[in-house]
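hi!! sorry for the late reply, been swamped w classes. u asked for the two structures so here they r. pasted raw, havent cleaned anything up. first the sequence of the first protein and right below it the tokens
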Amino acid sequence: MDSLSIDADIKKARTLTSDFYTDPAWFDLSKEKIFARSWQFLCHLDEVADLKPVMLLPEMLGEPLLLSRDNDSFRCLSNVCTHRGKILVEEPGRAKLIRCGYHGRRFSLDGCFLSMPEFEGVEEFPSEADDLRLIPFAEWLGFGFAALEPAAPFGDFADDVMSVIGEIQTEGLKLTSTREYEVDAHWALYCENYLEGFHIPYVHHSLNAIVDYGSYTTETFRYSVLQTGLSAAREEIAARYLFVFPNLMFNFYPWGISVNVVRPVSPAKTIVEFLTYVRDESLIESSAGPTFMGLKWKTKRSWRVFKRESDRGSIRTGDIRRHASKERTIFIG
């Protein structure tokens, strides 16, 4: 494995070597070094009645989690029984407590152990080890997030960019569709494509007609990148595209929010999940949202070519500055 090093000076910076995208060792290392330490999307919190099971990045981390709601207080717990490891809750629903279907162990909604049949007289029982593990959890814009071993508080990932965006209208958001697409490419390659708007006039002609590329702006922060596109007449903001490291995308439109979760499967395969949260259906057809979501797939051929040439050794590294991609420098650096 080659070492990874990105020059902070964009005039000198070069892209990662192709090994990062093709070597299974780098892919496996990213589980521990990147995804276990970053904040991952769970759901909109209106979807939680009392209990909602969530599998955190099924193909990469595969961690069973449980969102618990007690009035307006939310917690994220391990969804694994502390007795024999059975999954506790398999379907979302209403409940006053959590009960294991294997041996009847019970927990309160905050994860604390309550009781266990036929364990009377057992010494040093119960202990803290019998409580469900509490997972670091954060709320933002009405959405829930979790991190197994966070490298930094969630505020470090979101607060700075929100000071630029300002208030986002989130009242009335409803999940109207969930779609998944398989991409024959490394997860980071998909993210890099999202992060640079340089290709829009050349690849996405219909989107370019809606968004004025000449006024397109990109702002970088410690853990996020914000792209803003004005309407073709430059009269209003057509869309804001927010990337939160390492794999979350929040696309803000007049009608609502499209959330994209990039889920790594292997060095050569990625699943991208599209969750559409609509606030005002009447604004959908006239916005950039549907166009942008559909046109993302025009770049699939480019990803396949990159993978093929990387496997052959034709591509090793590239010069970032020629692509006007300071946002990619933030991502890979």
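now the second protein. again sequence first, tokens right under
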Amino acid sequence: MTEPEAPDEAPEPADEDSELEAPEPHRASTSEAPLSSDAEVYRRALLVLGVGVLILAALIGIRGRSLAQASQAPAPSVAVEAPPAAPSERPAAEPDVHPPARLDQRVGRCGPLDPKTPDHFAEPRELSLGRAWIPTEGGHDADFGYDVLVHFHGHKPARKIVQPFSDRLVYVGIDLGTLTGDYSKPLSKDDAFQDLLHSLRIALQKHTGKQKAHVRTLTLSGWSAGVGAIPTLLKRFSADIDALVLLDGLHAGWKLDKPTDGTAASVEVRYLTPVIAFAKQAIAGEKRLVITHSEVPTEGYAPTRVTADRLLQALDLKRQPFDPGPDEFGRFSYVQQGGFTLWAHHGSEERGHCAQLVLLHDALEQRVLPWLKTHPHKP
């Protein structure tokens, strides 16, 4: 595109001391041609005016064609990139967090709503502890390895929750009582967990008719008192466990050497030592760990929210705010680092505590099962 020409130089100003001379009046000369008649002058004026109109029309036409061609000209082949936004103006990366469906619409009085998905589980098989539901057909890899979920406490409602995964997951449900000790004490026995896994393998072999049928991956989950089984099992079998889902049941005691102030500073961290070690592996991407909590208060020991605060302190992790929306039990904060996830939800009464069990579905769907598909396993 041609750059516009510089304007003509302005005339130099006259000398301030000089004066402009007025033009002399026109004087007739005896040698001048005689004046034309009025008719002749009029005809010449019309002729000049007509020529001027034609010239002006021609100029306007040329200008219009130039503008039209310019507007129809193709864009340059090389795009000009806009300058990058300043760091403060760039949109922040969205966290890898799925917006949860309203929890208060997914729970009844105290339990999940009936599932609407097909049930692919065969009839349950008795184990040394609890019972196993195995997919009627398939659900295993080419080597007849199964992904197994062992759930502690509330196994009947939990079975409803895992029904959407009944074509690809073996579900083991175990109920031993309503207190944490009802789960931690029996599983602290030397062979209790090994006997459970042995009886499960026999059940898989009988179901498939294949001796090589086995547990490919092992996920443990617990709700409420059932979480009491987890620290006990981590002390001995952490290497055999691929993933954990702890649903509103991770508690710890208060420090005994000074009065408690009800905050994370008063929690005795040694109760959490096995979970902290597993959490560090999850952060490194070697395991999967999902922890959820409500706001239900407790007496005599730390509630799940305060216990979670102490765990996060030990891991040097910070909560991120989350908009709960109109959900009565909505998520108000979260933590996600590597394979470690924490979801914090409103709810300080029984129904809010029961709603936590429904989050087993979200934990499996979003954080555990996709990872297990590509996770390398030991034979």
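hope this helps!! also noticed smth abt the second:
Strands lie at 125-126, 131-133, 145-152, 170-174, 214-223, 243-247, 288-293, 320-321, 331-337, 340-345.
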